[in-house]
Inverse folding.
């Protein structure tokens, strides 16, 4: 299609403001998906997405819209709304010329509304503000339009008002996209340049590469070259997303689609790479994607029954469809060989862990997430560590520095006091506060990132009854009085359970960890002493009593199968456990260093 | 593992064809589900029998026996439920019917029936004896009225003693008593008191169970509601030790975790379960184990009778273990026995060839003192008995 009739746009918003639902309606009113094939949040097709009701991966779909007797091809990218997946949003925006900034007109501007809007501004996109959920009685579109102007500084007086649920105003949004969003600039006759925007592994067809064609045209049978990985492939199948893959043989400049060439080796495809014709001369690589900034690190170790090579392969496969994940091999005294992984945040970490378990049937242990610390050594050298276990002896270093996050929190004004208090309790420094509208406030703090992942988010959620939302950026490093909190299980130091904490709270956190471990580690045939220590000083101790009775009184012919299954299940509960010395430590114990209360796991 | 039935995926070969008859001599279990009242701790398939059609039940049961019961069984066990709940004429019909189908009277060395004090009369005891039953197991549970009340047993201590009298008068040489210890607030001295009284009356076998709160039972629900204070683990261990002390003093052997007998008086039918032998069970919920495949009947009267009458006695579920898992199962069951397991016998029974996967498991447990060996048998020593499940579990799915 002629690029003049193409529009590429992303839908961006805070989580739950209705992006995926709006995408549903757009597919429906344009007849992309037949009514009987329609289901809510159709593009969220990963099991985990449907279960949790969130979008994790951006998904593209091509729809056709008629306006003034002409047909336009609209390539829509639905994006995730959670702060951890900003990177996914950033990538999507690079394949677009415009973005719909969707705001729930009953909730108002939230932290990710602002964060995502800034991403779109940075990417130089045309932004169309859209007020959603106007079908709700308590929606306040005028007030919310004002919030948009105050917080983001874009004109929202003409913001379209829609209901992604009822379909009200959706056609007008499509018209507006055609009117306001510029067509892509590439020329179908130029030499091919395509951006690799995503990829998934298919057991039968190899790696499926998602492309945004920037310049030129690609047809089936073309022999192409991936500039970054230095690989040549023949286009076996070319198509677009409708939203299922539909073969169409050819893609032109400005279009989004897929490319199949039976690529089996995971290393052959890199997200952000540039594709051009084989042997083409003088092609300049596209800017690609900036590497993601990892906020937290955690180690994955195979359990006794899991295996190391299998885990490596699973991680490699996963990085294909999640290019923000990073991993490298590590060894631990207690846990043996494993991988240290870098994540964009806690939700990202949880999703990766669950995908490894479900999609790759991995059985593994994950250590508590930690931030990156910098250590200024006495020798003058500065090193970075990604795990408390790697901290050098205190007499070897001068200073320990931790990352500081600038967090911006949006709340209804009645919660300002609560938020202030939570921030102070987490070593926060107040920066500023602004009213977005009569009763909505943005508060900005600097808080150590470690505090943010400890339990700040849970506290904020419960303290503001779910109304508080936050976004954060790293601003730099700061030295503080930090110490390593050691955990000793049955006389053995377990690095994987240690953490770096502020001296002032060390004792309380130590008692906390030990109390949680006492609940989480099952009883053994012997007593298991637990201790927390700072340096050589024990600050907390507890003992897990020995298990002395585990016997079924009655077991006869009628119950053999049932009882055996019961015992097998109890034994299976031992999956996701690791023995350290002769103590079996279950997965949830490794996360006990996080949070004050019960941690959901 | 191949599985089918309720919770599992279907295994058509097994499920759709009518049951195959087990080899001659295979032990037979007969499940008679009716009781006067449902005890709150009971997790057997038992139902209050009052409004049920007992004659129709017997018709169906005999129909199932026609299809599946083995010829000339070595042992028979009538369990439940409460077999003595049936009237004398009904018992007669049942036993005569089974005799016609299986010819057990000339083949079975042991025929046991479970009885409860509230329904066992001298008449029934005599009748059963005349029809070939040669061992009774009496559900006494306790001789303390308060404890019986907590268990909601529909009989008094006096009725229990009267039932035992009937057993003796009818001339049974082999009889057993079921006792349960560990009711909330039960004094430790009750254990000795109960056991001694029963032994003084001539029991040659005692099953002494620790009270178990099985999920799904009313007693479990009251426990979770905090309706009473259960005994703590230390006390339960003390109970176990006390029961064993009294029984040993009286000259009984602990041949299984909860079963005690004087020499030669062990229950042969039950021994076969722990040796992982084959058997056929008929009646609702009854399980069978024939040539390595375990099957089970529906735990519902209606469904069981439809399965029998309309589908040629089709089991509700079935599973066939791989040799390696069968080997694990053999160890788990066998370690409940005082004599333990002979590794070579276990391998042969499971048809497992090749290196023995239980060896590293055994070695670890031997090191921990949770297993011992004597000649070629491996068993759980006295000190490890309270951890029998923990030990047994280690052997399950040894290949995983
Ligand atoms: N009442 C109403 N509910 C909506 C509307 N749009 C979305 N929702 C609901 O809001 C929730 C979040 O929608 P979803 O599309 O998953 O949001 P996303 O996280 O931004 O993709 C779902 O329960 C939707 O049914 C709307 O216009 N009106
Ligand atoms: S008498 Fe026996 S089978 Fe019947 S309910 Fe009580 S314990 Fe269960
Ligand atoms: Mg979504």
């Amino acid at each position: 299609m002629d690029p003049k009739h193409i529009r590429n746009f992303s839908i961006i918003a805070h989580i739950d403001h209705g992006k995926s639902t709006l995408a549903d309606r757009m597919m429906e009113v344009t007849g992309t998906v037949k009514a009987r094939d329609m289901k809510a949040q159709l593009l969220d097709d990963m099991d985990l997405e449907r279960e949790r009701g969130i979008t994790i991966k951006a998904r593209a779909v091509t729809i056709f819209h008629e306006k003034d007797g002409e047909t336009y091809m609209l390539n829509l990218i639905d994006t995730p709304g959670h702060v951890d997946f900003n990177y996914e949003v950033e990538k999507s925006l690079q394949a677009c010329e415009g973005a719909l900034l969707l705001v729930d007109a009953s909730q108002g501007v939230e932290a990710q509304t602002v964060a995502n809007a800034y991403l779109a501004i940075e990417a130089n996109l045309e932004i169309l503000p859209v007020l959603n959920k106007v079908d709700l009685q308590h929606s306040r579109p005028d007030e919310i339009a004002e919030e948009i102007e105050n917080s983001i500084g874009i004109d929202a007086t003409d913001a379209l008002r829609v209901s992604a649920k009822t379909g009200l105003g959706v056609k007008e949004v499509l018209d507006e996209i055609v009117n306001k969003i510029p067509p892509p600039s590439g020329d179908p006759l130029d030499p091919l340049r395509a951006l690799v925007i995503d990829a998934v592994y298919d057991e039968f067809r190899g790696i499926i590469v998602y492309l945004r064609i920037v310049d030129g045209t690609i047809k089936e049978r073309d022999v192409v070259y991936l500039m970054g990985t230095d690989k040549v492939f023949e286009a076996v199948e070319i198509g677009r997303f409708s939203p299922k893959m539909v073969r169409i043989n050819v893609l032109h400049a400005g279009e989004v689609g897929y490319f199949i060439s039976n690529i089996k080796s995971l290393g052959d495809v890199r997200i952000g790479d540039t594709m051009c014709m084989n042997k083409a001369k003088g092609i300049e690589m596209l800017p690609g994607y900036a590497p993601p900034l990892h906020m937290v690190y955690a180690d994955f170790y195979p359990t006794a029954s899991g295996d190391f090579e299998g885990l490596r392969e699973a991680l490699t496969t996963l990085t294909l469809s999640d290019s923000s994940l990073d991993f490298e091999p590590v060894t631990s005294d207690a846990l043996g060989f494993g991988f240290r992984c870098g994540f964009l945040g806690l939700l990202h970490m949880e999703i990766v862990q669950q995908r490894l378990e479900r999609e790759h049937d991995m059985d593994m242990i994950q250590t508590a997430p930690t931030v990156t610390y910098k250590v200024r050594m006495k020798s003058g050298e500065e090193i970075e560590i990604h795990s408390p276990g790697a901290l050098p002896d205190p007499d070897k270093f001068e200073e320990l520095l931790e990352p500081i996050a600038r967090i911006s929190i949006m709340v209804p004004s009645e919660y300002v006091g609560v938020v202030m208090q939570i921030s102070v309790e987490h070593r926060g420094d107040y920066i500023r506060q602004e009213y977005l509208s009569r009763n909505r406030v943005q508060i900005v703090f600097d808080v150590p990132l470690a505090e943010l992942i400890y339990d700040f988010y849970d506290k904020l959620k419960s303290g503001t009854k779910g109304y508080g939302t936050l976004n954060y950026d790293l601003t730099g490093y700061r030295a503080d009085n930090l110490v390593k909190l050691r955990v000793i299980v049955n006389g053995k130091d377990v690095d994987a359970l240690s953490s770096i904490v502020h001296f002032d709270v060390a004792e309380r956190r130590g008692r906390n960890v030990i109390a949680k471990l006492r609940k989480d580690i099952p009883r053994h045939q012997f007593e298991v002493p637990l201790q927390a220590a700072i340096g050589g000083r024990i600050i907390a101790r507890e003992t897990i009593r020995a298990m002395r009775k585990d016997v079924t009184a009655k077991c006869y012919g009628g119950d053999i199968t049932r009882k055996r299954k019961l015992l097998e299940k109890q034994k299976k509960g031992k999956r996701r456990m690791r023995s350290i010395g002769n103590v079996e430590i279950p997965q949830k114990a490794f996360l006990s260093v996080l949070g004050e209360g019960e941690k959901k796991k | 593992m191949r599985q089918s039935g309720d919770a599992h995926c279907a295994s058509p070969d097994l499920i759709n064809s009518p049951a195959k008859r087990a080899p001659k001599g295979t032990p037979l279990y007969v499940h008679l589900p009716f009781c006067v009242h449902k005890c709150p701790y009971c997790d057997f398939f038992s139902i209050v029998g009052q409004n049920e059609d007992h004659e129709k039940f017997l018709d169906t049961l005999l129909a199932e026996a026609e299809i599946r019961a083995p010829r000339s069984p070595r042992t028979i066990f009538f369990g439940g439920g409460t077999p003595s709940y049936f009237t004398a004429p009904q018992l007669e019909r049942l036993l005569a019917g089974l005799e016609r189908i299986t010819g057990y009277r000339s083949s079975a060395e042991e025929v046991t029936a479970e009885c409860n004090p509230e329904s066992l009369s001298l008449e029934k005891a005599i009748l059963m004896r005349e029809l070939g039953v040669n061992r009774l197991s009496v559900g006494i549970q306790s001789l303390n009225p308060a404890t019986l009340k907590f268990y909601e047993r529909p009989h008094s201590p006096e009725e229990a003693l009267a039932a035992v009298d009937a057993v003796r008068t009818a001339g049974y040489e082999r009889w057993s008593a079921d006792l349960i210890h560990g009711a909330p607030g039960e004094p430790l001295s009750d254990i000795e008191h109960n056991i001694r009284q029963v032994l003084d009356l001539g029991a040659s076998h005692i099953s002494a169970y620790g009270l178990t709160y099985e999920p799904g039972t009313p007693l479990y629900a009251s426990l979770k509601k905090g309706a009473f204070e259960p005994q703590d683990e230390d006390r339960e261990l003390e109970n176990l030790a006390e029961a064993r002390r009294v029984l040993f003093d009286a000259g009984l052997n602990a041949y299984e975790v909860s079963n005690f007998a004087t020499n030669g008086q062990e229950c042969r039918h039950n021994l076969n379960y722990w040796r992982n032998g084959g058997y056929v069970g008929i009646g609702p919920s009854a399980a069978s184990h024939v040539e390595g495949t375990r099957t089970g009947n529906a735990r519902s009267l209606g469904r069981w009778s439809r399965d029998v009458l309309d589908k040629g006695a089709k089991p509700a579920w079935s599973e066939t273990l791989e040799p390696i898992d069968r080997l694990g199962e053999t160890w788990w069951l066998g370690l409940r026995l005082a004599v333990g397991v002979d590794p070579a016998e276990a391998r042969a029974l499971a048809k497992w060839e090749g290196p023995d996967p239980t060896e590293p498991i055994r070695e670890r447990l031997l090191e921990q003192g949770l297993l011992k060996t004597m000649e070629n048998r491996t068993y759980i020593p006295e000190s490890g008995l309270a951890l029998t499940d923990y030990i047994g579990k280690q052997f399950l799915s040894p290949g995983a």
Remarks:
- The CA atoms of residues 455 and 595 of chain A lie 5 Å apart.
